[in-house]
Amino acid sequence: MMEKKSIYSEIKTVTLKKFKIARYVIISPYPEHDVIPYMDRWAQESGLLEFDSYEKKRIGWDFPFVTEEQQEKFGLRGYVAAYVIPEGFVPKCDGAEIAYINEDTYATLTITDPHSDSFGNISKAYQMLLEFAKTQTWENRLAFEEEYDRDGIHYMDVYVPIN
């Protein structure tokens, strides 16, 4: 009998240098579906996608500052979509907050076809990483995901800061 291959890669640790982002948050019943197209439009209109030798890199994370009433009464969630932007880039338009993510060390893994069961697959990845990372302090630290396609297959890398 053939063993089913896991959709999760091995967990590894990486240190990411400080990087600059342009970000936007939306609180809605389907925030990923609302904010990702918004940031894609912003990246186009701002000139980012035509910036010299820019390689598209979009990350995102759950926005935790949604009240219990918003969640329970209205079914709302929050999500942040961000583009990693080069140091010399100056946007041609407003509409996204420019910020820095400080250097940090992360536990990370890759999910193959994460949206075959988005809530189940991605939640399990975060659970696995949180158990591995045992992060004590979250102040000014960020857990996030990056989606991309390679050879016709969709992937998501998930990052959780470690102590």
Question: Describe it for me?
Answer:
- The protein is α+β, with helices and mostly antiparallel strands and 163 residues long.
- 24% of the residues lie in helices and 36% in strands.
- The protein starts with 11 loop residues before the first strand and ends with a strand.
- The relative contact order is 0.23.
Keyword list:
globular, 3 helices, single chain, alpha+beta, 163 residues
Give the structure's gist in a few sentences:
The chain has 163 residues and is of the alpha+beta class.
Topology:
Elements: E1 12-16, E2 19-28, H1 31-46, E3 58-62, H2 68-74, E4 77-85, E5 97-101, E6 104-112, H3 118-133, E7 144-150, E8 153-161
Antiparallel strand pairs: 1-6, 2-4, 2-5, 3-4, 3-7, 6-8, 7-8
The biggest beta sheet is recorded as: 8 strands, antiparallel
Strand element count: 8
Strand order of the largest sheet: 1-6-8-7-3-4-2-5
Number of helices: 3
Portion of residues within helices: 10-25%
Please tell me how large the radius of gyration is.
Answer: 17 Å
Sheet/helix structural class: alpha+beta
Low-confidence stretches: none
| Approximate strand percentage | 35-45%
